[in-house]
Amino acid sequence: MSTAAMQKTEADQDLEFPIPPGVFAERVVSVKHYTDRLFAFRITRPQSFRFRSGEFVMIGLPNAAKPVFRAYSIASPAWDEEIEFFSIKVPDGPLTQHLQKIQPGDTVLMRQKPTGTLVNDALTPGKRLYMISTGTGIAPFASLIRDPETYDKFDQLILTHTCRDVAELKYGEELIAATREDPLIGELTEGRLHHFTSTTREDSPQMGRVTTLIENGELFKALGTQPFDAAEDRVMICGSMAMLKDVKALVEKAGLKEGSNAEPADFVVERAFVG
Ligand code: A2P
Fold it and tell me: Would you list the domain boundaries of the chain?
């Protein structure tokens, strides 16, 4: 391929609008639609881009002089060559109404600075890490369960995912299966990575909101664990605002203290952003 032709394949070529400063322009590598509300996609990773598993970044599309950016948790682990995202599709969402139409080869904008509280650094060591998610809130945990550091820090990793219906659980099921078979991580997961799913609007073997299942003890019964204990358990929470508030209240009731990057403690929360 000639140099000129190679340059044409760069993501910052052929765009109608200039790329804003401090923003990477990356190519979409693959797109997978799960339901009419959910899809996942992968983009190329800039060589200089570093992040901690569990962090989020602002992404947008090159479709305006001042593009709309929204916060997205990075679903791929820090060692991955590509960047993965798991997104909702909002019919009138300023970003997702367009983002849901992306195809391989299209350009996605990504601000250069990742951030977030759902990181191993924000928790003190513990025996068990509960990662409690609803909907696209599973994304940061898709990153963390594929990071060897999480297995260094915790004996047991428990990922809970509650969705409206069975089809919405598919991303998580594929994720867990792929992680267990991964040549880098698979061995670490043996007997240590646990997946708990429930649905709220369609019949499935386990029904109910995660808050209900924590309160009535069914979550712990199904996992063979005991109710939250600040001495051993650490918790990360990601979902809608209402879900965060309710789960947070339950873990605080159990005596766990909220942590941050500056002051690590027993649990951390992060909203699953949409738009
Ligand atoms: P429900 O079907 O009872 O609303 P969504 O896709 O709307 O973000 O919802 C994802 C999942 O989160 C659904 O199963 C939903 O249950 C559940 N959910 C919604 N609000 C809360 C809450 N306050 N606490 C716990 N789970 C919630």
Answer: 3-111, 120-269
Q: What CATH architecture is 120-269? A: 3-Layer(aba) Sandwich (3.40)
Query: What digits encode the pLDDT tens for the residues 60-90?
Result: 999 999 999 999 999 999 999 999 999 999 9
Looking at 3.40.50.720, 2.40.128.20, 2.40.30.10, 2.40.50.100, the CATH number of the domain 3-111 comes to 2.40.30.10
**Cα of 134 to ligand 1 centre, how many Å?**
7
d(CA 69, CA 85): 14
3-state secondary structure of 28: strand
Residue 167 Cα to ligand 1 middle (Å): 15
CA of 104 to the centre of ligand 1 (A): 31
The sheet carrying 107-111 orders its strands as 70-73, 56-60, 107-111, 23-33, 38-44, 82-88
Specify the pTM: 0.94
